[in-house]
Amino acid sequence: MGVTLAELASRCQAEYRGDPHWVIERVATLEQAGPHDLGFVVGDKYRDLLDATAAGAVILHPRDAGRFRGNLLLSENPRLVFTRAASILHAAPPAVPGRHPTAVIDATADIAADAAIGPHAVIEAGARIGSGAVIGAGCVIGREASIGAGSRLHPHVTVTERCVIGARCILHPGAVIGSDGFGYAIDGARWEKTPQLGRVVIGDDVEIGANTTIDRGALGDTVIENGVKLDNLIQIAHNVVIGEDTAIAACVGIAGSTRIGKRCTIAGQAGVVGHIEIADDVHILGAAVVSHSIPQPGRYAGFPLEPYADWLRNAVRMRQLDEMAQRLRALEKKLKKLSEGGDYIE
Question: Which CATH class is domain 3-89?
């Protein structure tokens, strides 16, 4: 079922122009959009497609409003409006409350009446599943673990004993919450395992990507605060703390006891060593190696890590090294000729 242009504008906090009663049914690319589809333009790359699109409405920045004669949703942040519209028009169907007959549920587990438990899920003793939570097929919820209201665990998520997942979280397939931290003591030539006695505590509105792993604390807890967004294939070691609304891209590795502030971003394949602190509002570029604490907000890149402006300047200089070396050799040759008392001829 579609949504009228006026209703969509209201729910997305955008301004509309055109027919308020026009029904929008889905989002689509400008090339593929039909008369009841919503298109989206941001940046110069796609503006030329506006003349040919058959979209029933388009999301634009107000400065581009004159480029399209049809229905519009206008916003200073078109990408945010697109995100909201897509969430409305393509909302996931609500889960059907109940317990699949193949699920294995301990009699002492506390499960809300409106929770949905999928096929072959395992819920161990003392676990708590909140109102409206969805536990997908093959998930394992360990002893005394807690899943908050409205959270959705996609198939094959593991939440080990005593770990806590807040409300409205999304965990994608293969995520492992509460695996043992990498802790050992050396005894001569052999390693002896150190018990990992803490938990993982995850706040509200957190999203965790596929096959991301978060280790339990050695003594205290590993903590992921409210609003954090984690991509796929991230490793977070024991006793790490990640502040509110931080976003981390795929293949990042964070070593133990690191503290990351609020509203930070870490791009793909970056590595963070253990026992350091990163301030609020720090933005780390891809493939960087963070080997020391960062006390000030800003953008950082490279290895060794440095402020982005310095890294960019040094990267330009690195590309000029060959030319500079050739010029230096020419100067050395000239100086040698002059020191020998001869004339220099190029």
Answer: alpha beta
